[in-house]
Amino acid sequence: MSTRTTHTRTIQGQKNLQNINQASKDGIGGSPLRPDGNLKVKGEFAYSSDMWHEDMLWGMALRSPHPRANILSVDISEALTVPGVYAVLTHKDIPGSKYYGLEIQDQPALAIDKVRYHGEAIALVAADHPETARRAVKKIKVEYEVLTPIVTEEQCLHPETYGYVHEPHEYKSHGHGNICHEQKLVSGLGVTDEVRATADVVVSGDYEVGMQDQAFLGPESGLAVPAEDGGVDLYIATQWLHVDRQQMAPVLDLPEEKVRLTLAGVGGAFGGREDLSMQIHACLLALHTGKPVKIVYSRDESFFGHVHRHPARMHYEHGATRDGKLVYADCRIVLDGGAYASASPAVVGNAASLGHGPYVIPNVRMHAIALYSNNPSCGAMRGFGAVQAAFGYESQMDKLAAALGMDPVELRQLNAMSEGDFMPTGQQIDAPAPVAELLQRAKDMPLPPPLDTEHLDVRQVPGALSNTSHGEGIVRGVGYSVGIKNVGFSEGFDDYSTARVRLEVIGGEPVAMVHTAMAEVGQGGVTVHAQIARTELGVEQVTIHPANTEVGSAGSTSASRQTYMTGGAVKLAAEAVRRALIEKGRRRYGWTHDDITLVGGKVVSESAGTLVPMVDLLGDEAIDLTREHHHRPTQPFDKETGQGFGHVQYTFCANRAVVDVDVELGLVKVVELTAVQDVGKALNPLSVVGQIQGGCTQALGLAVMEEIIIRDGKVRNASFTDYLIPTILDTPPIPVEILELPDPNAPYGLRGVGEAPTVSATPSIVAAIRDATGLALTRIPVRPEHLTTEKPGA
Amino acid sequence: MRVTFTANGKPVEADDVWEGESLLYMLRERVGLPGSKNACEQGECGSCTVYLDGVPVCSCLVAAGQVQDREVRTVEGLADENGELGLVQQAFIDAGAVQCGFCTPGLLVQTDALLEHDAQPGDDDIREALSGNLCRCTGYEKIMDAVRLASARKCAGKAASA
Predict the structure, then answer these.
(1) Which of A457, A719, A725 is facing B136, going by the closest CB pair?
(2) Which of B29, B134, B137 is nearest residue A522 as measured by Cβ atoms?
(3) Per residue in A548-578, pLDDT tens?
């Protein structure tokens, strides 16, 4: 007998944030606790993989074992005979458009005639048990004509020899050949022989970044429930409900209003949930079978089912005067975008416009491209195009400092941009840009004590409990870095967010309700929204309505934009509610004061004192208003020159890393990773510090361990056994110092927080390893073989 | 098959259990205890950690049939019968150690087990004990804070009751 008798957990997804009227006075600047924390520690918070419905089926996809092949035939007949199987679907069963995509509709919802990457979905099964589905998937017979995959930069750039990932006649990209998108940039005089001649010192290098995975812990999952009106309700973990719906509805051949999405609990995202994964698949199966269908990816399927961080090959050349002033930068960045476009165009835009770093450089030439290949698709991941470039330009800064005999921090400070300077895009920095100060503060923090080899605890050294060393062969190094990241969506995109705020009397108290479609992915937006409502409305009790498509779009939980954008929308809506309430009082009581505000549940005049309790003024009537927040407009970059007011806001972080390296075995232990970041205004300092520490740790992963290994287009390590993310033993203390220099253009002066540390921290760790070993280290992640076989200074 | 066991102090029966099912699947999909999380299902991430006869295990690696007549305690069993949070649960909330929270159930069980064994662990002991629990959001700093806080409160509680 199962003890579970109802399908209430389906609806529990909607209850994740209800009944959480925190009796707290905490407004912005405080650190009230998360409204979902209590449920999360009790195991009662309903994540998308926890959704459950009586009589539900389990969905599963058949995925391609080949990175490039023609599909000659698909035979589903045997799979359909497996007892417990309710449906087996291929692209032929798709009622509407066969393709979708974030920026370019080039991705088939199920493969049509060919597969373009290892793990591409070909067919779907719905069955009564996940094991039944798994067995049925194995009985689908696919006949392939296997083709040589197009995987290297050389192959991609010569399609006439090696072939096209997307044939020219089916071409949908912004680019040509196998180039998905490209962006050039020239500022000053560009980089000519004359410009080169004005530099006393020139350093150049080739750098490579491996493919990193978001590796969020909560697998892609959700529950699709067919509705009586012919539509579908989907409970889903995503980053942007409305853009999911926008891509889903044409494929399902339904009007958008019949595709209703409710956010289920999200177990991390980091960009990996910007694209669709199982959304369309679950809905196709639910609509086809007339039954609720749950899909939960296994970890290996998760590696195949979402886009990754673009691997990059970069060439940088910097010229400087003898006293260390940068004269020019010449940069080429090649990003492998994989089989489908995803967010590649925007990633290229970021790489091109941020790829010179937070430095004033009179002459810049940049060429950034994203390739189509038969490697796994790449798209959004925390840091979004700025991460790869930061490894390039910060490696160059260290190399240049060494060539000049200068201190690497001083060299950076000498060239650091500050407010009023111009980006190479021609955009003036019109908010604080304390790059030099961030570096100085990182440098001034006390260093950790040296390794005590006399009283050694082996858990503290590289190799730790493997007992590989007792201090011999271990050398320490220190490295610095700084990075720049944009906030919000750029290049002319009208990136807006919607919030609905309702104020009413419940149980004799004024209570605010905040309703947005913001995806809470763990970052703490729900906490901040309640803080904003408390601050603007002078109430203690705030309820956060579950995020769904019944309210306008909130945009994506990415690009460090949600506090800025949806927080800004909550602020606008709350201000409108406040004005409406005060106006109601003016009409009723004839107030003429011009200094009326809401404090502590009362309508207050600063000069005349309390006017009336809010509950008396509100009575039985609720005030319920919706507002949109648009950031200031931006412009597309000129295709050839890269010029344009492209970004909304910039954010900066500096790091200092201290590492111990076992030079005999090639093992690295990061001893400490300091972060100093300007956050404009910390709306919730506890969450801000948590975001910075988490961002630093993902950067640590990229520096020394995280990479999806691909050979000939095939993924070799799609598991947490083989794809390594930092454990608590790999992660050092991360002291954080925050600056709060307000941005005059942003709500409360805030700056997006989440990504800057992921951009900046990786190069500091590599710099520290170089400092310890003297090795050049031009590829990340740094692996033991790099440390044991490279020659110093190579 | 039918599996009969104790979950969080209460007798439970699960019917029609397929012999290949894990304890994690049975808890989540048959018994109505979805608190233990399904992040890797191969014993690498620790998100599904539960007590089995008082010993923390990855429930994804235990076959459902193995728990016949045994005692399982999950994250749902860490709060008391009135829903009052346990000491470790409260410390994780107070320290800001919960972000997306997917790793939290496993970390709570593992931390509870650590502090049962050693109420005052040093930082290296904490790191060693929790090294089987992956967290992707926090950077672990606030998890360290939470464990230290729980330890301090536990020791203070013991001192007060002594």
Answers:
(1) A725
(2) B137
(3) 999 999 999 999 999 999 999 999 999 999 9
Q: Which residues of B touch A45 (CB under 8 A)?
A: 101
Question: What mean pLDDT do residues A73-93 have?
Answer: 98
| Contact across the interface for A42 and B40, Cβ inside 8 Å | no
CB A640, CB A443: distance < 8 Å: no
Report the C-alpha gap between A533 and A357 in whole angstroms.
Answer: 37
User: Which residue, among B24, B140, B145, would best test binding to A if mutated, counting the most A CBs under 10 Å from its CB?
Assistant: B140
Split into its structural domains, chain B has a count of: 2
**Total residue length of chain A:** 794
Nearest Cβ partner of A37 from B74, B98, B140?
B98
At A473, the amino acid letter reads G
Q: Do A733 and B128 touch (CB under 8 A)?
A: no
ipTM of the shown complex: 0.98
Maximum CA pair distance of chain B? 50
Q: Measured between CA atoms, how close is B89 to chain A, in angstroms?
A: 6
> Stretch A656-680: mean pLDDT, rounded?
97
Q: Is the pLDDT of residue A23 over 50?
A: no
Distance (Å) from the C-alpha of residue B138 to the closest C-alpha of chain A?
Answer: 4
Quick check: is B115 in a domain? yes
Where residue B68 sits, what CATH number does that domain have?
Answer: 3.10.20.30
The answer as to whether B127 is a domain residue is yes
- Check whether residue B63 and residue B129 sit in a common domain: no
Contact A482, A438 (CB under 8 A): yes
Question: What is the pTM assigned to this prediction?
Answer: 0.96
**Which chain A residues have a beta carbon less than 8 Å from that of B79?**
42
- Tell me which DSSP letter residue B65 carries: G
pLDDT score at A538: 96
Q: pLDDT digit string (tens) for A328-364?
A: 999 999 999 999 999 999 999 999 999 999 999 999 9
Residue A661, min C-alpha distance to chain B (Å): 19
Q: Which domain holds residue B139?
A: 87-161
Q: How is residue A21 written in tokens?
A: 């009227």
Question: Cβ separation of B39 and A720 shorter than 8 Å?
Answer: yes
Please work out, in degrees rounded to the nearest 5, the angle formed at the alpha carbon of residue A700 by the alpha carbons of A697 and A703. Answer: 160
Task: Please tell me the distance in Å from A221's CA to the nearest CA on chain B.
Answer: 11
Cβ partners under 8 Å of residue A623, min gap 6: A502, A503, A504, A577, A580, A581, A584
Q: Tens digit of pLDDT for each residue in A234-250?
A: 999 999 999 999 999 99
State whether B44 and A457 contact (CB < 8 Å). no
**The last residue of a domain, from among B77, B104, B133:** B77
Which residues on A lie below 8 Å from B28 (Cβ)?
50
- Whether B137 sits inside 8 A of A268 (CB atoms) is yes
B33: in domain: yes
- Give the DSSP H/E element, type plus range, for residue A511: strand A509-516
The residue type at A56: M
**Do B49 and B94 share a domain, yes or no?**
no
**Helix pair angle (B141-161, B104-117), 10° resolution:** 40
**Residues of B with CB below 8 A from A52's CB?**
29, 34
Q: CA of A310, closest CA in chain B: separation in Å?
A: 19
CA–CA gap between residue A7 and residue A575 (Å, rounded): 39
B60 & B114 share domain: no
* A and B: number of Cβ contacts within 8 A: 198
**Which of B30, B55, B77 corresponds to the end of one domain?**
B77
CATH number for position B152: 1.10.150.120
